[in-house]
Every structure is written in structure tokens, then in C-alpha cells.
Design a protein that fits this description.
By secondary structure, this protein is of the alpha+beta class. The protein is 41% helix and 25% strand. A four-stranded antiparallel sheet has the order 1-2-5-6, with helices on one face. It has a two-stranded antiparallel sheet with strand order 3-4. A hairpin with a 2-residue loop joins strand 7 and strand 8.
Length: 175
Amino acid sequence: MMPAFKSRSLLRKRRAFVLLESMLAVAIFAIGVLALGRCMENCMKSEKYRREEGLAQRALANYWVQIETGALPLNTDKSSEELKGAWSGMTMNMAREPLQLRNEKDQEIFGLYKVTLSLNWKSAGDTITREMSFMIYPRQRNGVQNGRQTPVAEQQRAPGANGAPTPPATPPARR
């Protein structure tokens, strides 16, 4: 048998080892919880970024379609608009510049424009900008061509004989 003082010192060493072991386990668990918290923070940031990017892409696509269909006229060379609703805090900037292009016969092509849409917003203290550029040939409506009013005689003239208007095509009669 062992003397009593040896068993007491052995018991203290075991208790000290168990204490050290449990402190190490708590430290590892705390590091794991901190890492998990960091991961959650990054997930939240990326979700916010994804949401803002989706809104920006939708806003740019909406303006592009409105300009292409003629629902949003481009009367000025530059304009800016604060967006509302889901897009509040975002600013849409539109710029139009005429293109100086020539066709295969070296004739200048009139009425082509380069449109640049630029969307700006603030996120986490930083200003973020997304841009989209495209070419457009605006439809001629109500006698407006290339931003100027065309004379009535030009509007009514058609490619008929001697400038006479061609009659409208009628569909064939059904039998």
C-alpha cells in the first residue's frame, strides 16, 4: 500500500489535469463559437450584397427596356433620377451621345445613340456604381426625327410614283 501523502499528491495531480483538460475544452469550444459567429457575419454581408446587386440589375434592365420601347424618352443628353420604393437610396444617371458611324457606302448614319445607364448607391459607407451601355435607334413618332420636328410634307410623302402616297394594302377578301 501507498502512504497517505502519496495518494493525496496523486489525487491533486489528477484534479489539476482534469481542470487543465476542461479549460482546454472550453477554449476550443469558444474558438469554434467565435469562428461560427464570423461565418454568420460573412453570410449576412454576402446576402445583403446579393440583394443589392439583384436590385441594381433589375433597375438597369427596367430602364433599358423602357428606353428601347420608347416608354422613357431620351430628350436630354444627361439626366439623373432618385429611385423610389424598393430602390430607395439609389440614383439612376442616364447619358446619351450621338454615334458618328458610317455605312458600307461611307455615308453617315444619323439617329444612332450610345446610351449609358449608371446606377449609384451607398452600402456600408462605400459608394457602389454599376453601368450598362447600349446603342439605340429611336423610333420616329409623330413627325419627330433625330430630335427635330419634321415638316408635314415630309411626313405625308411616301415612296409612291412622283411623291404620291401609296394606298394602304388591303387584305384579300375571304370566300
